[in-house]
Design a protein that fits this description.
Elements (H helix, E strand, L loop, with lengths): L2 E5 L3 H13 L3 E6 L2 H10 L1 E6 L6 E5 L1 E5 L4 H10 L2 E4 L6 H18 L4 E5 L6 H10 L4 H10 E4 L1 E4 L13 E3 L4 E5 L10 E4 L3 H24 L5 H5 L2 H22 L3 H15 L8 H4 L3 H4 L7 H9 L5 H10 L8 H13 L1 H9 L6 H14 L1
Parallel strand pairs: 1-2, 1-6, 2-5, 3-10, 6-7, 7-8, 11-12
Antiparallel strand pairs: 3-4, 9-11
Helix pairs in contact: 3-4, 4-5, 4-6, 7-9, 7-10, 9-10, 9-13, 9-14, 14-17, 15-16
Bound molecules: 1,4-dihydronicotinamide adenine dinucleotide (NAI) and 6-O-phosphono-beta-D-fructofuranose.
6-O-phosphono-beta-D-fructofuranose binds next to helix 7.
Length: about 375
């Protein structure tokens, strides 16, 4: 039986990527630091994925096991030696932390196994696998890098499925939205995985996804948070916020249509479909989850700043994106470490410093001035 080693046995790991591999006949070895999840994976050897819909579908996921990368390094290295795929859904900021272990595993593997292995990072980040590859290579000598170049392929990917924080922490079953899309960039002939869509150029797919699903979601989360809302679907019931989401996605849409030559009508239909997905009350998705890690989300390549910069450079409107960035700067749930860090940075150094440091935006930039204007208005 073919195997996959998947780093991150969380919501996307269990509810999406791991589940697709299991359904395709793979044994899935999840690697995580959450010992309780690892124990449950090993005890039950399976779990259920349930769709958030009136007529819920329940999928049984079998042929899974778990390893703890902090305490079972040797076992993880063994699993890496024979895996066909190595995947991650762990969060972009964690990739550098798991890279040394993957590097060690690949270095040992290429000495004794000539079979190809495919590495795919499934994160909300442009070029996540390329970045992971860089972190892995930093840990290897020239000779091993040369071996890797023949036997290991790295593919960027875009993952789209809304999986909220699960309501029962004692269960490893996962509630997911019915919709999903997993797009992988390669021209190689690779072993089939059910639900994996292969394209030669990921750029239009990941940008369309990140700057529609994730931008729209972020607008709802940050404006909802400021209005004291708890969930995404409740926030969307607010007519003003609903309109703000539409106006912001019109801005990212204009950029995407121009940049990738998308069909205007088809893109408008795509936006409509995404907003319908956000309305799914069965997900009960919290604004704090969707807005989580605002420093990452305010990064220059992420869902808010990058499309704003791109729109500005293309001579297109960006005022609503600037408002979304301003709202993100006011996101402050006490349990979100990055939100706390962001607020401390704002208090100690001010908004210009934060926009420069976190978003690579400078004082004399028109976008910076537009953000500051909205920031002052939202503070009132
Ligand atoms: N939840 C969602 O709807 C979607 C999430 N994503 C992306 O998928 C990735 C994972 O997100 P979620 O599954 O929602 O997060 P999650 O928090 O549910 O899962 C992350 C898992 O990584 C584990 N982890 C953290 N640090 C670790 C370490 N050093 N070593 C091993 N394991 C570690 C955690 O224990 C957790 O089980 C993120 O990049 C996210 O942006 C992408 C699309 C949808
Ligand atoms: O997972 P991140 O990058 O923190 O952001 C949350 C976003 O990811 C998703 O979970 C799915 O793409 C969306 O719900 C949301 O836009």
């Amino acid at each position: 039986m073919k195997t996959v080693v998947h780093f991150g046995a969380g919501n996307i790991g269990r509810g999406f990527i791991g589940s697709l591999f299991a359904q395709s006949g793979y044994h899935v070895t999840f690697v995580d630091i959450a010992q309780t999840v690892i124990d449950k994976l090993n005890e039950g050897k399976g779990y259920h994925v349930k769709t958030a819909a009136e007529n819920a579908e329940v999928i049984e996921v079998n042929n899974v096991s778990g390893l703890n990368n902090m305490t079972q390094e040797e076992e993880v290295l063994d699993a890496l030696k024979t895996a066909t795929y190595i995947t991650t859904a762990i969060g972009p900021t964690i990739l550098p932390r798991i890279a040394p272990l993957i590097a060690k595993g690949l270095a040992a593997r290429v000495k004794e196994n000539d079979e190809k292995v495919y590495v795919i990072a499934c994160e909300n980040q442009i070029s996540a696998t390329e970045l992971l590859k860089g972190y892995i290579l930093e840990n290897l000598d020239e000779e091993t890098k040369e071996e890797l170049s023949k036997k290991v392929s790295f593919f960027n990917s875009a993952v789209d499925r809304i999986v909220p924080i699960q309501s029962n922490p004692d269960s490893i079953d996962v509630l997911v939205e019915p919709y999903y899309e997993w797009v992988v960039e390669t021209t190689e002939d690779i072993p089939t995985v059910e639900g994996m869509k292969i394209v030669p150029d990921l750029a239009p797919f990941i940008e369309r996804k990140l700057f529609t699903v994730n931008t729209g979601h972020a607008v709802i989360a940050y404006l909802g948070y400021l209005q004291g809302k708890e969930t995404i679907h409740q926030t969307l019931e607010d007519a003003e916020i609903y309109e703000q989401v539409q106006k912001t996605l019109k801005e990212t849409g204009a950029y995407l249509v121009q940049r990738y030559g998308l069909d205007q009508g088809e893109h408008e239909a795509y936006i409509k479909k995404i907003i319908e997905r956000f309305k799914n009350a069965y997900l009960n998705d919290s604004v704090n989850r969707v807005g989580r890690s605002p420093i990452r989300k305010l990064g220059s390549q992420d869902r808010l700043v990058r499309p704003a910069v791109e729109a500005k450079q293309a001579g297109l409107p960006y005022a609503n994106l600037a408002k979304a960035i301003a709202a993100a700067l006011l996101f402050n749930p006490s349990e979100d470490e990055e939100a706390v860090q962001l607020q401390t940075m704002l208090e100690e150094h001010g908004i210009l410093y934060v926009l420069s440091k976190v978003s690579d935006l400078h004082e004399n930039d028109d976008l910076t001035q537009e953000i500051i204007k909205h920031y002052s208005q939202l503070q009132k």
